[in-house]
Each structure stands twice: as structure tokens, then as C-alpha cells.
Amino acid sequence: MQFGHFDDEAREYVIETPHTPYPWINYLGAQEFFGLVSHTGGGYCFYRDAKMRRLTRYRYNNTPVDDGGRFFSINDGGDVWSPSYRPYKTELDFFETRHGMGYTRITGERGGLRASVLLFVPVDVNAEIHQVTVTNTSDAAKSFSMFSFVEFCLWNAEDDQTNYQRNLSIGEVEVEDGAIYHKTEYRERRNHYAVYGVNAPIAGFDTDRDTYLGYGNGFHEAAVPHAGKSENSVASGWYPCASHQLEIELAPGESKTYTFVLGYLENAEDDKWESLGVINKTGAKALLARFATNESTDAEFAKLKAYWDQLLGSYTVESGDDKLNRMVNIWNQYQCMVTYNMSRSASYFETGMGRGMGFRDSSQDLLGFVHLVPERARERIIDIASTQFEDGSAYHQYQPLTKRGNHALGSGFNDDPLWLIAGVGAYVKETGDFGILDEMVPFDNDESKAQSLMEHLKRSFNHPLEKAGPHGLPLIGRADWNDCLNLNCFSSTPGESFQTTENQAGGVAESVFIAGMFAAIGPDYAVLARRRGDDAEADRAESAVADMKQAVVDHGWDGEWFLRAYDFYGNKVGTNDTDEGKIWIEPQGYCIMGGIGIDDGKAIKALDSCRERLNTPHGMVLQNPAYTTYKIELGEVSTYPPGYKENGGIFCHNNPWVIIAETIVGRAEYAWEYYKQIAPAYREEISEVHRLEPYAYAQMIAGKDASRHGEAKNSWLTGTASWNFVTVSQYLLGVRADYDGLVVDPCIGEEVGEYTVRRQIRGATYVINVKSTGAKGARLTVDGVPIEGNTVPYAVAGSIVQVTATL
Amino acid sequence: MQFGHFDDEAREYVIETPHTPYPWINYLGAQEFFGLVSHTGGGYCFYRDAKMRRLTRYRYNNTPVDDGGRFFSINDGGDVWSPSYRPYKTELDFFETRHGMGYTRITGERGGLRASVLLFVPVDVNAEIHQVTVTNTSDAAKSFSMFSFVEFCLWNAEDDQTNYQRNLSIGEVEVEDGAIYHKTEYRERRNHYAVYGVNAPIAGFDTDRDTYLGYGNGFHEAAVPHAGKSENSVASGWYPCASHQLEIELAPGESKTYTFVLGYLENAEDDKWESLGVINKTGAKALLARFATNESTDAEFAKLKAYWDQLLGSYTVESGDDKLNRMVNIWNQYQCMVTYNMSRSASYFETGMGRGMGFRDSSQDLLGFVHLVPERARERIIDIASTQFEDGSAYHQYQPLTKRGNHALGSGFNDDPLWLIAGVGAYVKETGDFGILDEMVPFDNDESKAQSLMEHLKRSFNHPLEKAGPHGLPLIGRADWNDCLNLNCFSSTPGESFQTTENQAGGVAESVFIAGMFAAIGPDYAVLARRRGDDAEADRAESAVADMKQAVVDHGWDGEWFLRAYDFYGNKVGTNDTDEGKIWIEPQGYCIMGGIGIDDGKAIKALDSCRERLNTPHGMVLQNPAYTTYKIELGEVSTYPPGYKENGGIFCHNNPWVIIAETIVGRAEYAWEYYKQIAPAYREEISEVHRLEPYAYAQMIAGKDASRHGEAKNSWLTGTASWNFVTVSQYLLGVRADYDGLVVDPCIGEEVGEYTVRRQIRGATYVINVKSTGAKGARLTVDGVPIEGNTVPYAVAGSIVQVTATL
């Protein structure tokens, strides 16, 4: 069952009904100012940090759900409704929400009046624009009132929802020339404020939520829109909000357009005040002036469109499969941008309060982002590496505002260091910028300890070698990629965090997954060392990788699949010898990505075991059979009810590793089948089961042991989009950057048939026509000339290179 | 304007309309299980700790407000309503909520059907009882459906509202014999669960909130009650809830009663399971069996009534002023019990997540609680003292579950130590239990460092002497009673906590308020030392007190009032020489309580200054003029908009100190006037201005600089009730426990006229008839015999002593 459709031409998903199974959201902004907006207008916005600088209030888990946002209310002769349907739920004659690239357009029509709200954050502007067009679709003249509404958050979103004994006394606003200024705490240590204005005369305003709603009312009962008259309330404490009243007259067929601006402004410390208690509004007035005409707003919107045209031009595919095209060309890349910006910080499942940028998360997010804006990827790499410790380990997370490591969460996740090598490798392959390796980068943000980035990579590389266990496999530490496999934790205290609790010392818990990562990622380090002329180091690295692979072969193989780990006591995890958790997905994917078992049949065996034991029509579960009881020696993974999350749920983040592995062993049909199982566009038709957005990956889909098998949760989360984009673009479609050229090595299902990839990299454009699909091993021609192997050498900037690939 | 009335006979406040200006709440429970319930059924319940063991979910700052709670829905032939009015807001023919002592009864009637819900927590039972009586008030037979509903919180209330990426996957329930069991996380580290059952056959149930409400609906749109049929949903993740359906038939005039039990149960670690994944429900079944008949529920309710009869018997007054009677006999004492139990942890303004028990808070709460249950006061004293450090300082807060000091907030609030002496002094005066001074009590919860409680008091006493500044006044540290006067903080970072931020070293900030406290409380330490035979220590203490009083006279007097402090640089705070914050309330009250300026006219001058500069018809503001800009050298006090909170708001906690001071100087009429300004019963008639409960003190009333002057916030907060009860019972009515006898020293307005206090203490009963009022200095007779002075010696247990007091 569908609730909308893709409009690929416009790069939009069109939601046709307010009654989706969950709020389906979009993101506004790509630089410093961001908004989340649902198809019924819910959500919030913030400047840079979703916790520390939140402009508008949003209540997660509110009832009614998703009732806070930017709402436009129409009172047409006493008939009160909103084009976003919510909060009034007044039935509409027409409803449509179009989520596009960095913008959303919500349109509703009722009783001969159409209202369309375009929401976007302009490029390089710290503001949300709400451009509202009202059209009289009836035969008679119309005279009606329209009310805007946003509710302000008192800046720190966490404090805002906990510290009422203070917060209900501090709200302050100003109203000047029809613009509403939110200045809570500006009197003291803040130098920033918000403004909500409109480019038209207003008939009234409200800034006190209890006045606007009427005390005790829900948004659906809002008093002012129902009365059809603003109260001109000035908030003093309690709940500051901003609402304008516009009185509008429309002849039959006439349209009028209004631009509302919700902006964030800062003043210099010594320039905060116009007079005692009155904000210096110079910045806000300039912002409002910039959007004084609807034409200037249109121009800013056109700039945003152009910005995305440019971004999405680096990698495109034309195939006969619309779903594939839209995932690759639009939505998967779009989500990569979102997760690059948000990491795991802000979605409808992450409140934006608790999480910073992850060392592991952001390194992986880079993999799918590096081709979009390489210069921002470079900056991110330096930020991430700056939080590394001198021993190669790393803060597991860092704060986006300060870029400092998060002490509360600390270190000890032993896969973290290797991800840095993966991110840097991807960046250098994309750009050829080996110079980044010479950048001096601090350890633990201490400039006095700065070393070259290459030295950082060396310590990353050495870390799993230095922290190796009795089988020569890397010790797992607090946890590896699977945050919830906590082999040294032994927690018995309710609610205690498995990720931060004091770990037990003296164990020998090793991770076969990290060993696989080392095998897969280590060679990049060797190459980088060799390119810098350090052959000895390169040789040492290659030798270490070979040793690790042998250790996996010797101690990481269970007979039909790769083991997952050894626990604290040295017992196997992920073995056929146990009743539950026999086989885990992560080592199967990553060991094969590391080239282990390719030649001796282990890889195929492992993948067949995945197919037999992990696969479902909704994707591959993380492990199987799920744990039915809590295993103190395994930690959080066993706390979930079977089929959910790490306990047998389907992770869209690690399914790609198996898909890549299938392409490595050349099983194109399996790889393709697995890709389609989880790719949201292919799940659109079962939206009533999947429930979340059909244009964005979710972290998790409930597994086969769950009563809600197939239901997705945690959409828009870090890492997932990147890995899926890497998988489809580099391994299925088979076009991936390498150090000296573009590898073209397709391995995708036969049903896809002929397709063409356009790839812009290092200034040149490659037009790659893949003639046929269904297997691996295509032979290439470059500008008509056959070549050996599958690497198309990089051409000079500006050139257009024609490539064909034929089985 | 009133929204209800007091029913003093029943000890109830009767709310006559759902449309109060704010949710007016009550507390259930007095031992380990507590509930908060508003007059429209909102609120939640928890076991011992409002953060860590919350049974039901409540959304602070929800819209619509206060929509979560325990709701009973009636579907009477398609007409859906609730006796609590919310969440449906279906108009009722009759509505009444009676908040009583530990119980609330909500009654609604519509269309010839009356439903009355009695909510209470029985004595010594870890459960909320919801006893529902439905009555057919019509002339025809009735057949209708009734639905119960509670939504479960996933135990840790903070995690519950932040960690959705995990929490939405973990919810689990069981349903057995019509009882619904909430067992989220029971599979792992928890050994506790909740049950919601009813003593009648059910026609259906629901445990999945989205099914009960219908996805996306608000509580007012709940699908199941509107459909008139339960779906028998079993929650798997998302939002577990509990709802029963009862099918009820009533003849005209007939009533039926049902008892619902919402209980908390624990199992031993090795006895958790009945079978794989199935809870051992022995405890729950015993609980439900205990309330299987309505008669047994009635008996438990009678026990609760008797419990409160006994508690409130220790101090009663009969006067011609009903408001005075009800404050003293019922509501002020009741609030003392609530704040003793809750400290500042859980109200409709405190979420119950952020705060533990305060060292300062709980010591002051003792002052109004010690006569109610002295043995619990004793336990609390030991708990508090156990968190003290060896140097006399103290953790500012400690956790109720662990009774350990709160490291996050730490120490350095230099008034804290003295409050312990005040609390112990009050306890010993009430009980004569000098033995408590010999109790061995740890420092910093380290048993190996245990010393006698007397030694703790010594270190408390010495602390302000050892931490004294250049004027011989105590250094203020992080802050004194006024948490928001932060003289060493110098914070410029937005949102940074003034209470926990690193303080600047090297300053000389002194507190005249702490000096006043020392003068007022220090003598109790001297007495205790002398009673233990340590005359040298007593002499030393008395001498130190005298020196401190002299230091205040020499350096703490501004000419017309007492200074508030010296700042970091040694500049005066609270002086006529500055434009703002000229005069502060705290030192005026406490210095006079410490006996400073009584003889030389300073006290009268200071109190006249308070009257002139601080007093308003709504109480005395904290300081004046309020600060119009942020003063980095003063801290949080200057962050509030003028008139709110510490920046010129009216604190009901420190107004009593001025009232006591007025009784000390003998100005009965002023004392009485000030008492009435803030006492809630006297503000009942201006409920539309005051807005909060007319039966409970609020922390703060907006001051004269605020646009909402007279509006109260933060009701039910720690300390306030205690100080007001101390003031009215011990100083206005003038009956207070001393070491050797009961002091009878009334000082109350003439309009009160003759009154009688009955006081039970140390096993004897004192019937004190005060013949006339309007001044201080009554002469006493004891059993008809005139005595010298105003101390009635303690009589032997069991005796009844008749006292008269005549001007």
C-alpha cells in the first residue's frame, strides 16, 4: 500500500494523504541552519547544534503525535483549517506534501481556497523561509484571516524540557513593526535571538502561547484562529510563541503570496542593545529586508535548486529501473548529505539532545559524502582525527559545537581507529589530495601534540595490533561496530549504560569483526604509506594484514561461517555450538570484504549460511537465533526482545557488507536481491508494513522473531545511507574511485539490463555505459579502446571519457 | 474569583469545575509509593524515586496540558465522556474533585449516569487504588461500557523521554486473567514489574497505546472508547499501556463499584520467572487478592483516614478564623508531609528527574515535619548527616534511592552545614532524644569515618568560622540560601549552570545572611554541648556567636537595613549606595532571628525598610529594585526578568523569616498582615490571579516589577510549607517546643481573637487557650496556676495540661 509517489523529474516524494503510518519527514538546510519538517508541518529548527541552539519547541512522543511545528491556520468565515491538515484535522478537499531536496511544499485546499506553504532554508542563510501562497479557486470573492504560528524553544532543548521551575519565568519577546523577536536569556549570557517576520502588514500578533491556544487547549483547539482575531499578547515567562494575523481578500482565481522568515541572529557582545532592554535588531532587519519581496524569495529558492543540481551531478545513473535510478540519483545521496550534517543527532527518533558526532559514525558517513563536497569532507576528517588519542584510540563521540571529544562516553571502542583510515582512504581516492596526509593534526585536541595525519593513521593501524588477544585477533574493548555486544561489561544494574559502565578487566574478549575490518581497511594504509615512499612501512603493514587474515582463518572460522568474537573467558560467540546467536552478520560481510576465504570456499560457505539462516524478505537479521534471555556476558544485545534491534533485528547498515561480499564473490543476483529487500523505494508498496519514509533508509527493520516483522524504526540515522550508497554505486553499479583511476566493475542483477553511469571526479566526466548485467567481470573500452583490467585511468580535468563495459 | 471551596470537616478542597487556571494537584502515598493527581485525573505514580522507578508516563509541558494520567472513559450509547472531564472535554452535568489527605475523589455525571473515581495509595501498600462507583441516576435501565487507561513509563523517566531509538523497541507486557502486566526490561536487569488489574470480569483489554488511541490521535480522540470495543492488543515495543473494558448494566438508582489496582512488585533475582519469558506473578496475585472485594478496599481507605487523623492530631488550633484553622490544622501540615517525602523532586513544576534530596532543603523540611512522625525525622537526620564531609561542608544534594551525595552538584554552598544544626535542634526539642547526638554517623557515606552526630554538628558549627572573610563574616562559597546569588561564578557561557560551574578563586565574598543564620542557629549548638556536659565547648560556641553578631553590627549594617553580602572584590551587596538590589529580604529576617539589632533599633529600622521597599499586597519581594541587566559579579539572580524568581519575585520561603522577626520585635499586626498575604487559603478569592492551588504554598509569586504581579509558580516545592508552619504555629500562634518545655508566646493580629491550640508532644497533651491577641507578652497559667515566663514545663506522658495565655 502506498501513501504517495515519487516525482523523479522534480526530485520530490509526493505524499498524497495526511494519513501516513508515521510522520514522514524532510530536512531543510545544509550548512549551519537546519530544520526538520514532517508532511503535516510538524518539526523544529536549530542553528548548528540541535541541543544547544534550538529555535522552536518540539515534543517527542507528544500526544497527539507531531503537533508542534510551523502551522498556518485559516479562518474562512468561521471555518478553521490548515493546509497541513494538522493540527485541526479539518478534512481537506485536496492535500499534498512534496518533500524535495532541502525544501518541502505543503498544499491544502478547502471550500474554494487553496493554501500552499513552501518551507526551505536558503543557501548560506540562517533562517527558515515559509512562503505561503493562497489562491481563491472558487467563483466568488473571498475574505479570510490567516494566522502563522511557531512556538519558541528556550534554546537548550534538554534544559527546555526539564527545568520548568526556572524556565517558566524567563521567557521574553519584543514585537516591532510586525516582526516578533524571541530574546529569552538574551538579557544575560546569550548574544543571539530569533525573529519571525512577514513581508506584509499584519492585523495582529500573539507571542504568549496560552493566549494563542487558550489555557489548557491543544493546538487543535487554538483559540485565536477560532476566534479569528489575534490578542496582541506579549509573553512574560511561560511559553513564548510567535503568531501573525493577516487579513486577506482574493478575487475569484486570484493568488497572493507571503514570505515569512524565521531567523537566527547573533550580535557582538558590545553591540547587543539598542537601548536598555531593547535588542539591537540590525541583523534581523537586514535579513527581513533580504526577503522583502516574493521575487527575492523565489531567487533564493532557485539558488537552492541549483545547489542541489550541482551536488547530485557527481554520480548519476540511467537505467530501466526507476526505483534504482531514484535511489541512486536522488534519495540515497540526499540522505548521505543529511547524515553527514546530522550524524545521529536529530531525527524523529533521535531527539538531538543526547548524541554528538560519532568517530565511527562520521568516518563512515564520509564514505557516502566525500564525492558530494570533498572540501567539507576534508574538514571533517581533520575534526575527527583531532579527537584521537596518542595511542590510536579515540573519543567515541565529539560535540559538533566545540569539536571536542565527549568525556562522558569516553573511549575504548576498539573498531573506532580503523574507520579513520577508511574515511581518509575514500577521501584521497576521490580527490587525489595526498597532501592531507601531511596536515598537522592534534591529539585529543591538544595542538602541542600535533602530528601529521599520516602518523594518526599509523596509530590507528597499530591499535588493533597492539590490543590483540590470545588468538592474535583484536581485543574488542567496550564494543566494536555493534555497540550492543558488550563482552567486558557484565552489567546487572537496571538502566545502567552498557557503553559507559566500568568494564571488567582481565578478560580476553576478541572481535573477529575487527579482524575482518583490519583485513579490509589495512591495505589502504599500506598503499598510502607506499605512495609516500615509505616502502618499509608499507611492507610491514601488508605483512600485518596477512597475519591477521591467517589468524581469522585459524581462529575465526566456525566451519560454516565466521565466528563473531571470543568472550571475556575466551569462549566462542557466533558458533553453531550454542543454541542462540549462532551466526552474526558482521564478520561474514567484513571478513570477505577483507579478502578472507575467497580462494578456499569459506566466503561462499559463509554467504550461503547467511542466506539460509539470516535472510528474510525484509533483509538479513543481525544474528540468529535471537537471544531469549539476558546474557550478562554478552551485554545489551541480549536485552532486546527477540527480533528487535541488535537482538535479531535487520540492520540496514550492515546488510550492505554482505551485499558487497556477494559482489566480491561474483553472485550478482543475490547481491541485487538483498539490495532491493531493504532499499526504501522498493519497499514503498508495503508502506503499511514498513511504516517509515519510502525515500529514506531506516536503521532497523524488525526481524523474523518479532511480532511486527518488517516494521522499520529509526529512519535517517547515521551510516546507513552511506553504506548503501557505497554498495549500490561502487559495487552493484560498480563504479568506484581508486587512487589512480576509476574502477568499473559492475555486479548487478540481470533484470537491470543496460545502464549508464555519469561520474564527475577530479574535474573530468566519465560516461560509463554498461551493456549487460547479471554477472561480474565486464571488459572495458575507454573512448572506444579496450583496456586490460577494470581501472579507467583518471583523465585530465575538463575531459569527458566514454567507457563501455560488456560481459 | 474561586473555583471551589474548602470542606474543613472532611479535610478536603472541593474543586467545582474542570476550568481552574492551572492543573490543581494532590499527592497520594506517604511511604514508598507515590502518585501525583490533578483535579482532572492527570499525573503519574512512582515507587520511591520519581526518576528511576516511574510506573506511568507523564508529559510535562504537553499540549494539550495534563492529558496523561489515569482515565476512565464511558461509552453510553455512543456518548463518550470521562468523569474527570479530560481528556474528552465532554461537558458534564455535574463535576467535582475532592482533594483530601492522601486521596482524591473525582466525580462526573452526564446523561443520568454518575461516575466517581476514588484514587488513593493505601498505607503500607505499593499500589494506587482506583475505586470507581457508577450510579444510574436516571429513570431507565442503563447499559454502557467503561474503559480504564494508564500509559506505562519505561521506568527511568529521563531515559523514557530521550532514548527513543532504543525504547521504542523494548516494550513488553503480559495479560493474564484480565490483569495487565508491564514488564519492559524485566527480561534483563530489572526484577520489578507493574500490574493493573480490576476485581471484575473484563470484556476486553488493550496494551498497545497506538491501538487504544488510534495512531496519531490525541487522548481526546481515543479510538477504543469511541468504538466502544477493546481490541485486545498486545504491545510489542512502541508504547505499552493498560486498558480494561467493562460492560455494565444498572437498574434505575443502582450503583456498582469496581476496584482497579495499579501496583509495583519486585521478585527475588532467582525467582523471577514462572517459565521462559513468563513472569512469576505471585506477588501481583496476592496484591490483587487483597483488593478483591470492595469492602476490603473500603477498609484500606478507612485505615488511610485514621492514619491522617493521628498525624494531624499533634497540633491543632480552634479560632474564629476559618482560613487560619484550615491552614494550620490541615493544609500546611499536609504540605509539610508532602515536601518531606518529595523534597523538590516531583511536582507539576519539578519533573522528578533532576533533583535529589537537598541537604539544605531536607534539613528545613524537617522543621515542619518533626512533630508529625518524629521517628522518620530521626532517620532523615542520619541520612542527611551521612553525606556531610569531614570538614563540615556537605554535598548539596543526595539521591533518595541510594542516599549517596550527588557528585554532579558537589559541595561549597556555605550555608548548608548550619541547617543540620537547625534540624537536629528541632528534633531534640520535639522529642527530648538527646541520644541521637551519640549516634555514630559516617562522613561522605564512608562508615570507616563515622563519628558521633554531635561531632558532625561541631564541624557544621565550625565551618562558617573556618571559612570566614576579611570582615569576620562567613564566606559565601558557591551560594548560600539564595542559590542564585553567585558571587564567585562569573559565568559568561550561555546555559552554563551557576550552581556547578567552576568558581573563581581568590575572592572575599562574604554572606551577611549566613552570619545571621549563625547567630540564630549557633545557640542551639551551644545548648546541645552544654546539655552533654561540655561547658567549655558551649562557652566557646556562645562566644563565637557573640563575635559573629558583633561582626554583623560592625560590617553588616547599611544604615537602614542589613547588607546582603560582600562580593568577590569586597564591594557591598544590598546597599543603598547602588541603584539596584539595594535591600534584600534574607538578612533582615535572619539577623533579627539571630537577635541582632533588637536592642539598638536596627531591627525595627530594617523591618520598616522591608515594609517600605519590599512589601506588596502579594507578599514581600526578595530584593528591590530588581536588576534590569545581567551582573556577572552577582550571577543567576540578575538573569531573571525583573519581578520573577530571585530577581524581585516574592518567595514564600523567606517571607516567614520577616514575619518571625516581626513577632520577635512584637509587632503582631504586621506579622499577621504578612502571613495572610501569602497563605494560600487567604488568596483563594483571587485564584484567577494567583492561579495555583489555594490549598498549597507556591515557591514564588511574581513581584511588583512583573507584568503578571501576583501570579504564583512552582507550588509544592520544598521548604516553603515548613517555614510557614513554623511561623504560624510557633511564632504567630506562639506554641513551640523547647528543650525543657513548651514555649507559649503568641503574637498575632487582634482580629484573630481568642483561640485554643491543642498540642501533643512527648506523650502529653497541652490545651492552650489564648484569651486575647494583638500584641506580644501574654502571661500564662498552667492548670490554673500563674507561672513566670512563657515556658510550660513538659508534663509526664499521658497527662493533659491546661494553659491560658492572657495579655
UniProtKB/TrEMBL annotation, chains A, B:
One Pfam family here: Glyco_hydro_94
SMART domains the UniProt entry points to: CBM_X
Entry keyword set: Glycosyltransferase, Transferase
Residue ranges constituting the Glycosyl hydrolase 94 catalytic domain according to the UniProt record: 307-734
GO molecular function, one term: cellobiose phosphorylase activity
Protein's name in the database: Cellobiose phosphorylase
Residue span(s) of domain Glycosyl hydrolase 94 supersandwich: 11-283
This enzyme's EC code(s): 2.4.1.20
Family annotation (InterPro entries): 6-hairpin_glycosidase_sf, 6hp_glycosidase-like_sf, Gal_mutarotase_sf_dom, GH65_N, GH94_catalytic, GH94_Enzymes, GH94N_CBP, Glyco_hydrolase_94_b-supersand
GO process terms (BP): carbohydrate metabolic process
Organism: Demequina lutea
Transferase as UniProt keyword: yes
Phylogenetic lineage: Bacteria, Bacillati, Actinomycetota, Actinomycetes, Micrococcales
Domain of life (superkingdom): Bacteria
The protein's enzyme class: transferase
UniProt keyword Glycosyltransferase, yes or no: yes
